[in-house]
From TrEMBL:
It comes from Candidatus Trichorickettsia mobilis. This is aspartate transaminase. The keyword DNA damage does not apply. Keywords: Aminotransferase, Pyridoxal phosphate, Transferase. Pfam families: Aminotran_1_2. Belongs to the class-I pyridoxal-phosphate-dependent aminotransferase family. The keyword Kinase does not apply.
């Protein structure tokens, strides 16, 4: 294991986004620089969208909120999260979420870290490709063994339920971690398929840890005249909220477009919530108390519906715009994203000198555009595997506002013309 010169400290890898942002900074990038386009950062535009609710611009901070928050979060906010899930996904069901099924934490990584610290000596399945931050998370905690499950273009970046069943039974998986919709491919498990996945976890006693941070960015079956926008969650298919092994993570970062607030939640059986709260007591101590109070109004059903409809209308246009331009440039898109705000781009058809995620990144930086090499999504804890997948791929984000998106695609076009 590589160590630093300072005694006791080991070297740690950077997540893909952190790496590319450092490289961009070395080339002169600064946040807000109108000459640059950041198509690498995993964040949505946080400004005003047509038809969306008014954005929060001021925080009211009563004196008592200068105190520590409870490690599990403010009880009122925990109940508000439970109420939203019951309203949106569990109407008419006898088993309902309560505050005891919710834990608040300071962002998605903290929520995932609490869960990982709570796992026992088990085999945990994870998918490839998937969210870059899973890699170190799955490697730093030694109690469980991460088991990779491959998904690629041959299966449309969606592993069949039968394959997942074989992995659970054959490798003795006690838990499976996945993002849904998937970051970076944008593929979605929904409807009957999601219901059957929940049943699989229940029938084979395997916990499903579902990162649902992009669950409002859905571009399939969108009906603008429907009362409800299309949103997905495994919560819809849970039979007993305290016995079904379904653990859901979400927060304000993506679906509410407030990444800087660093507020997330875990929705799970109350026994799990008690354990992850205990983990939080020594890992992080609890989320920001002042911001939790402000978040209450953002979880009103009417607010969520209005925000999600505006979000989907805006991001669907950006998705189509980026798809059309990339394809015209000769970049392959094997599967159009059904969700998230990313294009999983196959670079193999480009000139050899840029048909690689890192080379594509470096060439783009010369034109002031940032992307993320696909190899970062080959989740490989502690580099146990020597073969790296997806080196000819790049994740390109349509999260920024349209003017920055256009500027970035113009830059990519210049890169490709230069190397042809």
């Amino acid at each position: 294991m590589p160590y630093l010169k300072i005694p006791g400290f080991r070297k740690l890898p950077q997540t893909g986004v952190i790496y590319v942002m450092q490289r961009a900074a070395e080339k002169g990038w600064k946040a807000g620089d109108p000459l640059w386009s950041n198509l690498g950062q995993g964040a949505p535009e946080a400004g005003v969208l047509d038809g969306a609710p008014k954005r929060v611009e001021n925080l009211n901070i009563p004196l008592h909120l200068h105190e520590y928050s409870p490690t599990s979060g403010q009880l009122e906010l925990r109940q508000k999260v439970a109420d939203l899930y019951n309203y949106r996904y569990r109407q008419g069901k006898s088993s309902q979420y309560t505050w005891e099924n919710v834990s608040i934490s300071g962002g998605g990584r903290i929520a995932l870290t609490r869960i990982a610290a709570s796992m026992g000596s088990i085999n945990m399945g994870h998918f490839i490709p998937d969210y870059t931050a899973y890699e170190e998370l799955l490697g730093v905690f030694k109690a469980f063994v991460p088991i990779p499950i491959i998904q690629d273009v041959t299966c449309g970046y969606q592993v069949s339920l039968e394959h997942i069943k074989q992995e659970i039974t054959g490798r003795g998986l006690s838990a499976v971690l996945l993002s849904n919709p998937c970051n970076p491919t944008g593929q979605v498990i929904a409807g009957n398929q999601l219901q059957q996945l929940v049943e699989l976890g229940r029938d084979y006693n395997c916990s499903l840890i579902l990162d649902e941070f992009y669950s409002h960015y859905i571009y399939t079956d969108v009906n603008v005249n429907s009362k409800y926008p299309t949103m997905i969650s495994a919560a819809k298919y849970v039979e007993d909220v305290n016995n079904d092994p379904v653990i859901i993570i979400d927060g304000l970062t993506k679906n509410w477009r407030y990444p800087g607030w660093r507020i997330s939640w875990t929705v799970a059986p109350k026994d799990v919530i008690q354990v992850v709260t205990s983990a939080g007591s020594f890992l992080d101590g609890g989320a920001n108390n002042m911001v939790q109070q402000q978040a209450l109004s953002l979880l009103e059903p009417e607010y969520v519906i209005q925000e999600t409809k505006a979000l989907q209308a805006c991001f669907a246009k950006k998705r189509d715009y980026m798809l059309n331009r990339l394809i015209k440039m000769g970049i392959k898109v094997e599967k159009e994203p059904q969700g998230t705000f990313y294009i999983w781009a196959n670079l193999s058809g480009l000139p050899a000198k840029i048909a690689d995620g890192f080379k594509f990144l470096e060439a783009g930086l010369e034109e002031k555009v940032i992307t993320v090499p696909g190899i970062f999504f080959d989740v490989n804890p502690e580099k146990r595997r020597t073969y790296a997948r997806f080196h000819q791929y790049s994740r390109i984000s349509f999260g920024p506002a349209m003017d920055e998106l256009t500027r970035g695609l113009d830059a990519i076009e210049r890169v490709i013309k230069r190397y042809k």
